[in-house]
Amino acid sequence: MRKWIRLSIPLIATSTLLNFAFIPKNKEAIKVPEILKVDEPTSVLFPKNETLHAKMFMAPPFLGSSYIGFKEALAFKESQGNYFITNTLGYLGKYQFGIGTLQLMGVYNATRFLNDPVLQEQVFHTNIARNKWILRRDIERFVGKNIGGIEITESGMLAAAHLAGAGNVKKYLRSWGAFDVSDSYGTSISNYMKKFSGYDVSHIAMKRNPKV
């Protein structure tokens, strides 16, 4: 009997202490302060009117050496992939086209172009086909050659033509790199020749004076 009492006393004491621990002496102590009470749903801030892709992707998606990889890498270099941007020189959209080039593609409404991503993609593809026609002989002659430590590739040539025009790319190649012009931001033909080399653009059909 005494043994049972000795074993029971610690259990009773522990139970009593636990009850005191979880029941406050003053019920006012457990009141929630007014400033912490939530009586209605909290509004969530969200940039409803902003284009999110430029903020979400700080680097172009890795798409390998495909044509899609080529155009997305070029777009990221030009505008970080933003369809709706105009730079300080007035170049428009994801691929930063000038008004003169747009007119060559058959686009005469800059506002419509800037607000139409599908049209921008069509213009880019059409311009690549046009530049490929202009550079067709130079592609045959120079692809695989080395100019100033840069291996010449078809994609590098087309990217450089997007930057500086196909005529200037011809001059660069035929001068073996001596004629290397830069744009207003300091990016040169040789920069693009190197940066965008090795992409597969072979399936793009060359076209003479194409329109969208």
Key words describing this protein structure:
single chain; 212 residues; mainly alpha; Lysozyme; 2 domains; 48% helix; globular
What does this structure look like?
The chain is mainly α and 212 residues long. The protein has two domains: 2-36; 53-195, Lysozyme, CATH 1.10.530. The protein is built from ten helices and two strands; from the N terminus they run αααααααββααα. The chain has helices spanning 2-22, 53-56, 67-79, 99-104, 110-114, 117-134, 136-142, 154-164, 166-174, 189-195, and strands spanning 146-147, 150-151. The chain has a two-stranded antiparallel sheet. The protein is globular and about 40 Å long. The model is unreliable at 20-29 and 40-58 (pLDDT under 50). Residues 1-21 form the signal peptide.
With helices defined by DSSP (H or I, 4 residues minimum), what is the helix count?
A: 10
Oligomer: single chain
Shape: globular
Estimate what percentage of residues fall within beta strands. under 5%
Low-pLDDT ranges:
20-29, 40-58
What structural class should be given to the helix and strand makeup? mainly alpha
Protein name: Peptidoglycan-binding protein LysM
InterPro entries: Lysozyme-like_dom_sf
Keywords: Signal
